[in-house]
Design goal:
Blueprint (H helix, E strand, L loop, with lengths): L10 H4 L22 H14 L4 H20 L9 E2 L11 E9 L3 E10 H4 L1 E10 L9 H17 L13 E7 L3 E5 L2 E4 L16 H11 L4 E7 L1 H12 L3 E7 L3 E8 L15 E5 L13 H9 L7 H6 L1 H19 L18 H8 L7 H11 L5 H36 L9 E6 L1 H5 L1 H20 L2 E5 L3 H12 L8
Length: about 500
């Protein structure tokens, strides 16, 4: 997924959701700003028309997603979707025991986690984690600098191990490495970085094995650990969710970036050419951010894409993920301010700054239930020094809702596209029984309207009877636990000891 023209993206605006706005201490806004409702109506009407997602649009997106999945499974490069094989063919069973670590590099935050597993009876005995923001400069640094930072955080975290966490004598600590960028997996514990996304432009990593990059950094830090599983965050989420619920078949991340994966039959992957897995199944990572067919786009989407560091790429991600929703809305509001005097005669200077309005701001504004929309006014003032009246605040909410509704409904259509594909290959295996889609990511977790629109879209596409069998379930922090579980299932030691 990646960002913008300007390398001055402020990571707090695009990172994980948080409640940073307060109406306390912010002046009540004067209501003398000229009414703007009439002059912006044509812009708003066109915006809503361009973003519309009626059922035929959703169905076209779902069908196109299914077709792209099939084409990407047939041959590498067969569609926009890379359909990357994860080499994960044995999923956690609940029998796993021991101490395992996980690293999670997936966006603007980096997490380290440890988990003590107790087998079928005790399951997860204890977990601890620490989250660290990736310094802005490291998103544009060298590979060595980024991985040295990761190894340092891991080293400090490992030194604090104690209490309920016990490593049997004679064993190395094993890590599940969640690396949420496009990787050409070469085995369960190695993979070549295809390209950086999500605004990262780290030099010297593309074309290299990211596990080797981490191992070298750990060696430089004197850290005696072994990566036993390299997983994408969606794969980790699926593994973590399936540990608790065997009906999980699909996992979707909706946060700063977005992606999806699902459990596929080996004999339904023509490009495998006879490769075999004992279970007959494997997890396939779509890299669905690259999907682009049939999406209803606006001039603001096209302008943002043109100004990004990867024009023409990751269009689905730019339409539905947390990194971009605030920026698309900012561009629309700026046009309304310039051409429709949305905020009075002058255009707020800060509103011209790319990514100044974050998706967490949109979410916070949409939760405002006050009569005068004071929270909306407060956020607009805090973010862009915008003085607003009630009319302009209502229009701001209309703009937010227009983009978020489109995003949630398109994400829902994408999910149905995956489910349809599996169902087409094995009738009744999905729609005829309980099937769980595991969801993770701050956008899904902390944006109620987004969540509602996604579920409405799935229900509309599948109809009441079939959608009753499809359970869309939040799997909080599933990718971290999932990576540790996959480290256990792929351990070089007997994890049932």
């Amino acid at each position: 997924m990646s960002v913008t023209a300007s390398a001055t993206v402020t990571s707090p605006a695009v990172g994980s959701f948080y409640n940073r706005r307060s109406t306390r201490g912010v002046p009540r806004f004067r209501m003398a700003v000229r009414s703007s409702a009439i002059s912006v109506v044509p812009i708003l009407t066109k915006l809503q028309k361009d973003c519309a997602t009626p059922l035929p649009v959703l169905r076209h997106v779902a069908d196109s997603m299914s077709a792209d999945i099939r084409a990407g499974l047939a041959v590498d490069g067969g569609s926009d979707l890379q359909m990357i094989l994860s080499y994960v063919d044995s999923l956690p069973t609940g029998n796993e025991k021991g101490l395992f670590y996980a690293l999670d590099l997936g966006g603007t935050n980096f997490r380290v986690l440890r988990v003590q597993l107790g087998g079928k009876v005790d399951r997860v005995i204890a977990t601890e984690f620490e989250q660290v923001s990736i310094p802005q400069e490291l998103m544009f640094a060298t590979s060595e600098e980024l991985f040295d930072f990761i190894a340092s955080v891991l080293s400090n975290f490992a030194q604090e191990e104690g209490g309920k966490f016990h490593l049997p004598p004679g064993r190395k600590r094993e890590i599940g490495f969640t690396f949420s960028f496009p990787v050409k997996q070469t085995s369960v514990d190695s993979g070549i970085l295809i390209k950086w996304t999500k605004g990262f432009a780290v030099s010297g990593t593309a074309g290299k094995d990211v596990v080797a990059c981490l191992n070298e950094a750990m060696e430089r830090k004197g850290l005696d650990m072994r990566v036993s599983a390299l997983v994408n965050d969606t794969v980790g989420t699926l593994a973590g969710a399936k540990y608790w619920d065997d009906d999980v078949m699909v996992a979707v991340i909706l946060g700063t970036g977005t992606n999806a994966c699902y459990v596929e039959r080996m004999d339904a992957i023509p490009k495998l050419q006879g490769e075999f897995s004992p279970s007959g199944r494997t997890i396939v990572n779509l890299e669905w951010g690259a999907f682009s067919k049939g999406l209803p786009l606006t001039v603001f989407d096209r302008d943002m894409d043109a100004a990004s560091i990867n024009p023409g790429e990751q269009i689905f991600e730019k339409t539905i993920s947390g990194m971009y929703l605030g920026e698309i809305a900012r561009r629309a509001l700026l046009k309304m301010a310039e051409e429709g005097s949305l905020f009075g005669e002058s255009v707020p200077k800060k509103l011209s700054r790319p990514f100044v309005l974050g998706t967490p701001d949109l979410s916070a504004m949409q939760q405002d239930n006050t009569d005068d929309l004071q929270t909306v006014g407060s956020i607009l003032y805090d973010v862009a020094r915008v003085e607003s009246n009630l009319n302009s605040r209502k229009i701001v909410l209309e703009v937010c809702d227009t983009f978020v509704r489109r995003a949630g409904r398109l994400a829902g259509a994408g999910i149905v596209g995956i489910l349809q594909k599996i169902e087409e290959d094995s009738k009744g295996s999905i729609f005829g029984k309980r099937t769980v889609v595991a969801m993770d990511g701050g956008l899904y977790e902390r944006y109620p309207q987004y969540r509602r629109y996604l579920k409405e879209s799935v229900a509309e596409l599948l109809g009441p009877e079939t959608s009753h069998n499809i359970v869309i379930e939040h799997s909080k922090d599933g990718s971290g636990i999932g990576a540790a579980l996959l480290a256990a299932t792929n351990s070089k030691y007997d994890h049932n000891d």
